[in-house]
Structures are given as C-alpha cells and as structure tokens.
Amino acid sequence: MSTPAAVGPVARSLAILEVVADRGGAGAKEIADALDLALPTVYRLARDLVESDYLVHIRHERRYELGHKLHQLGLSLHRQLGLSRPVTAEIARLHSSTGFAAYLAVLRGAELVLVHVVDSPDCPRLQPLRFGFHEVPHATAFGKILLAEWGPDSRDEYLARHGLRALTARTTTERDRLAYELQNVGRRGIAWEHEEFLAGWACAAAPVRGADAALIGAVAVSARPASFDAREAVTETRLRQVASRVGALIRGSLT
C-alpha cells in the first residue's frame, strides 16, 4: 500500500487507520514504510488521531492500536445496516446447518455490500474477498440477485458501462445468456454461480426483502462445487428460510 504525496491529510489519516486495523496495531516506522510517508508526517497525523480517540498510543510498545471512537462508529453502521444480534445469529445458524461459509449483504445505494460472514476452517470464506464487489455482479450470486431486480434498460446501461469481464473460464460473458440466467433468478428467487467468480468454488444466494417486497439485501453460502452435489434443493430451501427471517428481523416484525 502506498499513499501519493498529493493526497490530502484526511486520506492519509484514513490510510493510517487501515494499516493499523489490517495489522492489529503498528508502529510509526511500520506505518511510514507501508504508506510511503515521511516519519514526521506519520507522527503528526497519528497524534491528531490519538487526540480524537481514533487511535490509542501504546507507549511502552511504541505502537498504535485502534481507538474506541471507531468502535462507536462501527456500532452506528451496524444499526444503519440492520445488523442486529438476531440477524447475525441467523447467518451463524445458516453456516452451522449447512456446513458452508455463510454471508449477508445489504443494499447500499445501487449495490449489494457484504457486511457479515460466518465461516470455519473446514469451509472458509471466499478469498480474495472484499466488502463490496459490485464491479463484477455478473460473476457472483449476490450480483445476479441485484441484476435480476433491475429492468432491462437499467441492466443494459450498467453492462454497457462495465462490460462482462471473464474472471474464470466459466464466467458468463454473453449478454443473451446472462439475461436468460437472470430471468430464472427472478422467477425462482435463487441465484447460483458455479466457479464463475473463483475457480474451485460455487455460491448460491437468495434475496432479502423489506416492505412492499423491495430488495434490501441477500444471504448466500459458498463451498467447493462437489459439496453441493445432491444438496442443491436443500440448500435453496435453507437460503429461502433464512432470507425470510432476516427480512422480517430487519423490518422489525420478529424479535
């Protein structure tokens, strides 16, 4: 990671927070090396972050850790996303009942953003994975759920702008074929991708709906393709059940 000198102090401060978060704490020299910043600049920005409670300076270890203000921001974000304890418990149960890595994404603006994952050593989450992968919706189960919601004009405009990039040999790159797949997604309420996002992995997703049946998110599971053999119907049923409960929890009709 590097931060160009032309970037302003706010962006550099945020980059410092990201380094500290990614590494579970970091010293000033480590931060400076990671961001290609001068050491005095790191000290100055880190001091401001400490004074604002976004960082804590562990003096005897000569390192910085995240401050409690970030925890407060995280709690506020979780409330905005509807990410309550009962909702995350549903995702945990989805994982334990299927044995697959389980995911929750919520609609933020015009994209589904991944906000919660439950996995295990036996069935880890997809890697690499970013919280928000809207650049390639045609290759992901979450993305197909979203694209299936859009009208033809909105979908065509998006695809004309972003294209259908091939991530693996199995990624759908023909617009007519994708349109047929999305028609089935809309009809069945389940989206599948078989090694289209990452080779050697498959994923299925179901929409989470709010008031007036509007899309507000999606739940998904991922595993090795062979793990879904003879279990697709059971997996789809479980996804629909969890999606229904998560939607009800977010709407406030369940406790």
UniProtKB/TrEMBL annotation:
GO biological processes: negative regulation of DNA-templated transcription
GO MF, one example: DNA binding
PROSITE patterns cross-referenced by the UniProt entry: HTH_ICLR, ICLR_ED
Source organism, top-level taxon: Bacteria
Pfam family, one: IclR_C
Membrane is among the record's keywords: no
HTH iclR-type domain location: 7-68
Record key words, sorted: DNA-binding, Transcription, Transcription regulation
InterPro entries for this protein: GAF-like_dom_sf, HTH_MetabolicPath_Reg, Tscrpt_reg_IclR_C, Tscrpt_reg_IclR_N, WH-like_DNA-bd_sf, WH_DNA-bd_sf
Database matches in SMART domains: HTH_ICLR (SM00346)
Domain called IclR-ED: residue spans: 69-255
Coiled coil: none
This protein's name: IclR family transcriptional regulator
Organism annotation: Nakamurella sp. A5-74
